[in-house]
Backbone:
């Protein structure tokens, strides 16, 4: 950062996983907001997101993020640790990549957004840094007056007393200095905690709603009013109000007051432009004369100051200012005074002439009586205003807005007032347009950061319910006060109310009940937001019925018994207020099909800004694709699991005098069946078949051969074929699969329980791990000999071996997922399995299988990567007398 002094630093390292990108964004956002650098937060988050993505996703390494603060701005550095990197030649030009590519956008964005940036390469790392300077703020002298003779200086008492009064967020007096006590006669103890309105005599203008409470909410205010002294007399004062916040974020207002004739002490003088030559130094700035000095820094403050000064300049009852949209076809209400601003703010009206149109936007216009031309100024409908003058705001001949003042009496304004107002509008038009463009740029960058984080969250889940919750949580309260998501299962289904969210959790149940009672919006695929009036109308009707019941009136207006009054009136009225504003519906379209609707709402008399609707539309497109992906994933998972469950045996049969236990684990997330399989089934009276096998590989391909083998074994065994014949025919069936065939190891046997309590087994072990027999004395031995596996050669010569299990004996059959369990270079193996089995003397078949499974799991820290099946059979000992 050159010679700049570093005043703070913060660093963090993020692992090479996808979720680290969101964590890095949060780290940078929290750090910069903690430093108070909110002006550059959005740009820093966007650039950090791209650079960390390049490191952890594309380079596959950890990312180091370092934030450095100076007095002028912030520098952020992102480094990766690629093990071997080709260092670019110095003569090669910079390659920013393409904006359409997934990677390479980080450097392109650095070039577009950063004040300065750079890249440093080494064979083992890439180090990218960018610097964002804070916006320049005016410094130095704000205003100065000329050197005047003493006789021309303002007159004041020998000692000028400045009352300092601090008002908390509730309008109560929190501080009252000694000068205030001297000027007004009240001590600090007498006034602390009381409302300032108890002591003020505020000059009221007929037809306006502005008072001391409104003035205390403004960021800065200056003017005259009266303070009622301890003796009851009204003391005229000149006041300067400044709204501040403490370190905990709590707002308050500091009021400086002097006697009205000493107003020169506080009054902001008209600022004259500073010039090196004194030829023009005597001229004043018309903009500063109209707006006052200092001018508000933010657009809303500038517009509010403008309408207040316009109202005062023409002694009006109300004033309003509208800004034009980019295509100049509509005007958006941005500031009003003396009007119900909550109902009008951000509302839009068309520009061109016609019924309900704003016909006087492009030229100055004077309406002597609006009752004679109803609808000429739609904004003033129902407000009681009679006369109005409107003038355009233009920059380089282009319409940028409209400024108007109005009065409750007719014939108040003439062309002379229109010319005065137009002169003032011409002075402020350029400042307003500059502030508007700055606001749009901040909104654009904030929107980009919002969409980056939203896309990252939506891409991080394939769960339908979680996707619905994320959609709602991202819109409330950032974009809307409440949100409802409707989903459509298929083209023949009606929209279903799937999720409802309100910024006030206590309103969710009432909102859900209201929406459930009205017909859902039509699933129109046309892009963009459309207004939906049904919720507001239903809420107002419900509120009206509740109010009538409160008064003891039925729906027909007749008196009803008090006992029949409803108990949910308060909830109904609160719900009506919550959804009484504008409601819009955005279609959720994915793969050319409407899969749902995203409904956004505002509270009573509130409207959406066009920029918010455009951002919501962009979010709805991303959310629709994420929701459809979650639906497809859920459907395919359900189909996959259903098919897999069909490949598993329906259940273990009850074999007389033999305990049988099976444990089965399929490798891979979402898999219920893999390449290993087992089966135990009755063949004929007194005879049972059992099998345990392993198909080469895992996953769906291996599961397909598993199904073929299991069903073929049952059919062939029940046709009366012996063990060798069953396996030879199964071998031929596998080879018939051609390119889809896979070799198979299989242990197949037939079991006959005997009358003396033992069990007779005939087994064929075709390339499978040998079965182990545990005798009652603790000895372990192989119960069969190895023979060729299936699915490799056509001609097989297999034979079966006879095994007799005495009471207390156990036969253990496993797949190679058990014996080949590894940790590093160690493997459990046949010997390790035999050692574990030797400790199972006297255990039931279920206990034997469970002990083998625990031994396999504890052999290595990592989870098993291969399918695994354990089949244990035990002949119980006869009960002792």
Residues:
């Amino acid at each position: 950062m050159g010679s700049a002094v570093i005043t703070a630093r913060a660093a963090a390292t993020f692992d090479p996983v996808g979720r680290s990108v969101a964590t890095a964004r949060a780290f940078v956002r929290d750090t910069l907001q903690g430093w108070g650098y909110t002006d550059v937060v959005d740009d820093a988050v966007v650039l950090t997101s791209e650079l960390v993505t390049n490191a952890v996703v594309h380079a596959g390494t950890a990312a180091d993020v370092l934030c450095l603060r100076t007095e002028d701005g912030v520098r952020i550095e992102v480094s990766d640790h690629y093990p071997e990197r080709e260092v670019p030649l110095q003569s090669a030009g910079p390659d920013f990549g393409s904006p359409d590519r997934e990677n390479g956008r980080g450097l392109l964005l650095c070039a577009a957004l950063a004040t300065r940036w750079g890249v440093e390469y080494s064979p083992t790392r890439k180090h990218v840094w960018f610097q964002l300077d804070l916006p320049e703020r005016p410094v130095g002298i704000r205003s100065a007056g000329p050197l005047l003779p003493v006789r021309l200086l303002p007159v004041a008492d020998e000692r000028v007393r400045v009352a300092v009064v601090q008002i908390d967020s509730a309008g109560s007096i929190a501080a009252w200095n000694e000068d205030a006590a001297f000027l007004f006669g009240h001590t600090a103890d007498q006034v602390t905690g009381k409302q300032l309105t108890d002591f003020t005599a505020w000059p009221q203008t007929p037809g306006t709603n502005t008072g001391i409470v409104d003035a205390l909410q403004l960021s800065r205010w200056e003017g005259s009013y009266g303070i009622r002294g301890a003796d009851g007399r009204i003391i005229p004062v000149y006041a300067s109000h400044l709204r501040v916040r403490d370190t905990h974020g709590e707002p308050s207002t500091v009021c400086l007051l002097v006697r009205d004739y000493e107003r020169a002490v506080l009054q902001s003088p008209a600022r004259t432009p500073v010039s090196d030559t004194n030829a023009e130094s005597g001229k004043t700035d018309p903009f500063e004369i109209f707006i006052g000095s200092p001018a508000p820094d933010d657009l809303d403050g500038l517009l509010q100051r403008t309408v207040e000064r316009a109202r005062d300049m023409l002694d009006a009852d109300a004033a309003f200012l509208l800004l034009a949209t980019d295509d100049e076809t509509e005007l958006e209400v941005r500031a009003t005074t003396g009007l119900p601003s909550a109902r009008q703010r951000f509302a839009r009206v068309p520009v061109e002439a016609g019924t309900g149109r704003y016909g006087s936007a492009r030229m100055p216009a004077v309406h002597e009586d609006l009752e004679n031309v109803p609808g000429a100024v739609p904004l003033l409908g129902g407000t009681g205003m009679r006369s109005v003058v409107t003038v355009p705001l233009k920059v380089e001949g282009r319409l940028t807005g409209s400024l108007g003042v109005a009065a409750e009496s007719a014939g108040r304004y003439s062309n002379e007032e229109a010319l005065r107002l137009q002169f003032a509008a011409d002075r402020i038009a350029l400042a307003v347009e500059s502030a508007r463009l700055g606001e749009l740029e901040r909104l654009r960058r904030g929107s980009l950061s919002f969409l980056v984080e939203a896309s990252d969250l939506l891409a991080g889940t394939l769960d339908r319910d979680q996707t619905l919750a994320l959609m709602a949580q991202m819109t409330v309260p950032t974009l809307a006060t409440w949100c409802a998501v409707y989903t459509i299962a298929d083209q023949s289904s009606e929209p279903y109310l799937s999720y409802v969210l309100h910024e006030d959790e206590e309103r969710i149940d009432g909102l859900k009940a209201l929406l459930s009672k009205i017909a859902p919006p039509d699933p129109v695929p046309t892009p963009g937001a459309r207004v939906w009036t049904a919720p507001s109308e239903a809420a107002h009707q419900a509120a009206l019925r509740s109010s009538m019941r409160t008064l003891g009136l039925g729906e027909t207006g007749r008196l009803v018994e008090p006992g029949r009054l409803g108990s949910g009136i308060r909830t109904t009225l609160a719900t009506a207020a919550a959804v009484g504003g504008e409601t819009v519906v955005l279609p959720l379209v994915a793969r050319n099909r409407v899969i749902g609707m995203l409904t956004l709402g505002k509270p009573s008399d509130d409207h959406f800004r066009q920029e918010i609707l455009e951002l919501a539309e962009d979010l709805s497109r991303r959310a629709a694709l994420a929701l459809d992906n979650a639906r497809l994933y859920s459907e395919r998972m359900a189909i996959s699991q259903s098919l897999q469950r069909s490949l598993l045996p329906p259940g273990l049969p009850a074999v007389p005098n033999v305990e049988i236990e099976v444990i089965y684990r399929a490798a891979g997330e979402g898999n219920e069946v893999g390449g290993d399989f087992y089966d135990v089934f009755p063949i004929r009276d007194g005879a049972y078949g059992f099998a345990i096998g392993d198909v080469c590989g895992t996953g769906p391909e291996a599961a397909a051969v598993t199904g073929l083998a299991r069903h073929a074994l049952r059919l062939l065994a029940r046709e009366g074929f012996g063990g060798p014949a069953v396996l030879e025919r199964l071998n031929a069936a596998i080879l018939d699969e051609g390119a889809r065939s896979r070799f198979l190891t299989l242990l197949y046997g037939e079991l006959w329980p005997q009358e003396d309590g033992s069990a007779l087994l005939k087994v064929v072990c075709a390339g499978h791990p040998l079965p182990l027999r545990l005798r009652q004395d603790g000895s372990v031995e192989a119960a069969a000999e190895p023979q060729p596996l299936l699915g490799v050669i056509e001609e097989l010569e297999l034979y079966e071996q006879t095994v007799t299990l005495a009471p207390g004996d156990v036969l253990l059959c496993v797949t190679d997922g058990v014996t080949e369990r590894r940790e590093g270079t160690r493997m459990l193996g046949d010997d390790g399995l035999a050692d574990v089995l030797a400790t199972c003397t006297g255990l039931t078949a279920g206990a034997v299988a469970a002990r083998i499974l625990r031994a396999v799991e504890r052999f290595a820290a990592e989870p098993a990567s291969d399918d695994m099946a354990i089949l244990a059979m035990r002949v119980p000992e006869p009960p002792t007398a």
Q: What stands out?
A: The mean pLDDT is 80. Residues 415-459 form the longest helix (45 residues).
